[in-house]
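Title: Comparing notes on inverse folding

I've been comparing how different people in this forum approach sequence design from structure. To keep things fair, I'm posting one structure and asking everyone to reply with a full sequence. Here's the target:
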């Protein structure tokens, strides 16, 4: 993740500003923050939330679009699950380069470009979505919506530069939560189109977002700023890749964020397949499709708050225990044909994936703070060097874990696809989810909670 290079502060509290350039940005300076910094940072945060929200909505377009693809399109359930898997895959791949692009091109500049890139999938979708379109064309269009997944990474990297350490948790939480709300938002747009125009007009859903994309780009051009002092730490990603905590946290993030985005993409399809008698039309499924992602987005800050009070590792451990129980309840309800229990179990999965998103994000800086403190105590590093190392590793780990975690969305949709292909039910997929969550809570306990001298205090 990008960091701020040291600068020589001017005497004035205000940041000298050219055309959207913030020189000598000093959020840790109390006088600067009160006089100028807070106002500028908040303005950048709200515009960033808008741009990221639209990006998440475009990333999630196919969770809604597949509900419109009736028999006239000639696509079986396995083919539809592939259409929701490929956006997650491209979004995951783009997260690292999008993170690095903020320091390379400037946060404002890259937000404008990344917003306009959302037109690449939405404009052709608004033109081409109709019966008779080839499946290969649909796959290309679905893959292109993955550009919206990269926006999250660049948005978080950019906002991270604007706020002092003591306020970063809240700012990044608002930024992430506002972005995640794009998933239920696009599903509500799809519901509105289904309820008014009917299933014959899938092109109206991406068409709704074309003016919003333009608005996000214009707002970014008007109100966002670049911080020239931002830079990518050389070798930071290599150092993070060599650290075992990077991969432990990546596995945990697959279980939390991967579950959230994967279930968000797949929930509507699974409802129609598992309970076809209750959901004979896409409209019936759409009434519930948005509910899970909405709840999961809204509870994300709760995970961070609980982690602050109880410890991130403890919250994450019990969260995965709850997710394993939720997946087990969904499996039981699916076999018992109990829709009420099934809905409770699935909504629980959304709730705890949201809580887990917050708690795992809180764990990452705590891990490196604890290790930095230990290195100072043993004399291996001076305090200032240890603090720089902790910030550097935290940013890099967040970038890597975010990219790897997004692949969980691919795995969820592939698991559903293979399960329905093999047996006509999702039971095998639910068993796989239970096994993954068990692995996650065992890993959390073994690395961060097991008594012993290796345990990191405060994690």
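Reply #1:
Here's my take.
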């Amino acid at each position: 993740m990008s960091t701020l290079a040291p600068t020589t502060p001017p005497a004035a509290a205000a940041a000298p500003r050219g055309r959207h350039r913030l020189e000598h940005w000093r959020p840790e300076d109390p006088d600067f923050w009160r006089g100028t910094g807070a106002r500028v940072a908040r303005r950048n945060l709200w515009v960033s939330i808008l741009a990221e929200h639209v990006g998440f909505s475009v990333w999630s377009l196919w969770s809604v679009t597949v509900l419109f693809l009736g028999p006239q399109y000639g696509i079986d359930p396995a083919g539809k699950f592939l259409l929701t898997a490929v956006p997650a895959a491209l979004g995951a791949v783009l997260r690292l380069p999008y993170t690095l692009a903020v320091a390379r091109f400037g946060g404002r500049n890259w937000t404008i470009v990344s917003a306009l890139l959302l037109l690449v999938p939405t404009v052709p979708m608004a033109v081409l979505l109709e019966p008779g379109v080839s499946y290969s064309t649909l796959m290309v269009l679905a893959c292109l919506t993955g550009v919206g997944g990269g926006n999250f990474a660049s948005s978080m990297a950019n906002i991270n530069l604007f706020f002092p350490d003591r306020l970063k948790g809240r700012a990044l939480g608002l930024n992430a939560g506002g972005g995640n709300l794009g998933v239920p938002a696009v599903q509500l747009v799809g519901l509105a189109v289904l309820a008014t125009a009917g299933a014959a007009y899938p092109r109206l859903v991406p068409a709704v977002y074309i003016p919003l994309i333009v608005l996000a780009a214009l707002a970014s051009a008007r109100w966002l700023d670049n911080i020239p002092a931002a830079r990518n730490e050389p070798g930071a990603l290599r150092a993070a890749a060599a650290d075992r905590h990077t991969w432990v946290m990546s596995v945990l993030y697959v279980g939390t964020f991967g579950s959230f985005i994967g279930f968000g993409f797949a929930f509507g399809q699974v409802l129609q397949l598992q309970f076809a008698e209750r959901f004979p039309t896409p409209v019936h499924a759409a009434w519930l499709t948005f509910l899970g992602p909405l709840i999961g987005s809204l509870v994300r800050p709760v995970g961070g708050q609980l982690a602050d009070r109880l410890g991130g590792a403890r919250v994450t451990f019990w969260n995965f225990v709850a997710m394993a129980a939720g997946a087990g309840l969904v499996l039981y309800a699916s076999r018992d044909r109990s829709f009420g229990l099934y809905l409770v179990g699935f909504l629980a999965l959304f709730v705890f994936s949201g809580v887990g998103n917050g708690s795992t994000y809180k764990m990452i800086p705590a891990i490196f703070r604890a290790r930095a403190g230990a290195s100072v105590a043993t004399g291996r590093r001076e305090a200032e060097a240890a603090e720089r190392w902790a910030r550097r590793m935290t940013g890099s780990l967040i970038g890597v874990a975010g990219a790897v975690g997004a692949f969980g969305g691919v795995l969820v949709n592939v698991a559903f696809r293979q399960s329905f292909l093999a047996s006509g039910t999702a039971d095998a997929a639910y068993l796989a989810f239970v096994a993954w969550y068990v692995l996650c809570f065992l890993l959390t306990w073994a690395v961060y909670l097991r008594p012993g001298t290796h345990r990191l205090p405060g994690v």
